[in-house]
Amino acid sequence: ELANRMKERVADVVKFMMQQGEMIRGIDTLDVDTAELIVEEFGHTIKRVSESDVELGLEGPADADEDMKERPPVVTIMGHVDHGKTSLLDALRQTDVVGGEAGGITQHIGAYQVKVKSGEKITFLDTPGHAAFSAMRARGANITDIVIVVVAVDDGVMPQTIEAIKHAKAADVPIIIAVNKMDKPDADPTKVLTELLQYDVQVESMGGDVQAIHVSALKKTGLTELTEAISMLAEILELKANPDREADGTVIESKLDKGRGPVATVLVQRGTLKRGDIVVAGGQWGKVRALVNERNQQMDKAGPTRPAEILGLDGPPSPGDQFVVVENEARAREITAYRQRMIKNKAASAPSARASLEHMLARLKDGVVTEQAKEAQLVVKGDVQGSIEAITHSLETLSTEEVRARVIYGAVGGISESDILLAKASEAPIIAFNVRANKQALALAEKEGVEIRYYSVIYQLIDDVKATLSGMLAPER
Ligand code: GDP
C-alpha cells in the first residue's frame, strides 16, 4: 500500500526494509515511524492525515434537485405474532405482474420488489418483525418509507401491534393498517379500528388520515387495494433518488454460502450499482462479481431501492451496514483496513483477565471495575447473520441496573483462534450459536481461559445468560 502510494515498486520498499534489518512479517501493518523513515528514504514528502480522514469524501457530492427521479417505496410489515405478516408477504409476492414471463419470486434474499398492475414498483423488506426493524435503526439505517401494521380482525390490537405502532412513530415512518383475516366469519373491522384510536392511530373512516385496508392473506383479497394504498402514500411522500451516480445503500442480509462464498443482499438507495463495481460494505470489500435478483436472475445493474444479492465480497458484512462504491481497489483496501482496525481497537481496549461470564460478573460485583465499565461484554459467533443480529438485540435488552450486556463483536462462521484472541483481549466469553470451535481454537481457549458457551436455541441462550447475570449479581446471604 505504501509502495503504491509513493508510486514505487513493492520490491524496492521490501528490499530497503530488509537492509534496515526489518523482517516483513506478511500481515503486519507498518508503524508510523517506520513508514516515515521509508517515505523519507525514497525522497517523498510526508503528509500526515488523521486516522479518520480515511473515510472522508466517501458519501460523495450532494445530488442536484434536477437529478432526482422518482423511486419505488420501501415497505416493512409489522404486527403481532400470528396476525399474518408472513402470509401477507407471501400473498403480496404474487401480486407481481412480471412473474409470469420472467419466472416468479423464487429466492428469499431479505427483500423483494414487485411490479403491480398499475405499473408501479414496490420494494418489500422480507423479514417481518420488530427486531429486524430496530436492529437496522440502531445502526442508523432508516431505510423503510412505509410500515404496514397487520392486525388480525379476530384478535384485535395486541401488545406487539402497539409496539409496531410505537416503532413506526419513533422512526417517523407513516403507517397503513391492514386488517387481516377478513375471511373469518363475523369479521368486524370496526372494532379493531376503534381500538386503534387509543394508540393515536386515526383511520380515514374515523376522520383521521391513516389508510386502513381490509385484506385476507389466506384468500388473497384486498391485495390490490393494499398496493394501491401504498402507491398513493408513496406519491404523497415524493420519494426520489438520483439514479445517475456511484451507488450507495444498506446491507439487508448476508451469509456465507458454501458454493458462492460471501453473499450480501443490499438495497441500493442512491445511484446505480453495476457488475464490476468495487464496493466497501461495513468492514468488507470486493469487486461485484455478480448481481442476482429475487428471481435468481443475473442483473447488470440495480438502481434506487432495487434489492440485489451481490457476490464477490471478501466476507459477509452485517445487516444495517452501509455500502458504497469506491474508485479503486487501493481505496477499498484502505477503508476496510481502517474499519477493521477500529473494530479491533474497540475490542482490545480492556485489560486482560479470565474471559468467562462468571469471572466478569464476579469482578463487577466486587467493585473491582469502575462504574462506567459495568458492562458484560460478549463475543457472538453464529451460523447466519440474521441470528447474530437477533441474539445481539435480545442480549442487549437484558441489561439490569447493575450490569449491561454488550456484544462487542458478532460474526458469521466457526470459532477460530483469532476469535479466541479477541475474546481474551476484551475478557469476553464467546457465545456460539450453531457453530463450533476448531481444534486449534479449542486448545487456545483452554490455554487462555476463554469460555465458550454453545447454544442452538435462541431463547435458551437468552435465558441462560439472563440467569447468569441475575444469579451472580444477587445479594449474598
Ligand atoms: P405471523 O406470525 O404474523 O407471520 O403470521 P403468519 O403469517 O404465520 O400467520 C399465522 C396464522 O394465521 C397461520 O396459521 C396462517 O395460516 C393464518 N392466517 C394468516 N392470514 C390469514 C387470513 O387472511 N385468514 C385466515 N383465516 N388465516 C390467516
TrEMBL record:
Keyword list, A-Z: Cytoplasm, GTP-binding, Initiation factor, Nucleotide-binding, Protein biosynthesis
Function according to Swiss-Prot or TrEMBL: One of the essential components for the initiation of protein synthesis. Protects formylmethionyl-tRNA from spontaneous hydrolysis and promotes its binding to the 30S ribosomal subunits. Also involved in the hydrolysis of GTP during the formation of the 70S ribosomal complex.
Name recorded for this polypeptide: Translation initiation factor IF-2
Positions bound to GTP: 79-86, 126-130, 180-183
Similarity comment text for this entry: Belongs to the TRAFAC class translation factor GTPase superfamily. Classic translation factor GTPase family. IF-2 subfamily.
Species assigned in the record: Hirschia litorea
Compartments it resides in: Cytoplasm
Residues in Tr-type G domain copies: 70-238
Lineage: superkingdom: Bacteria
UniProt GO MF annotations: translation initiation factor activity
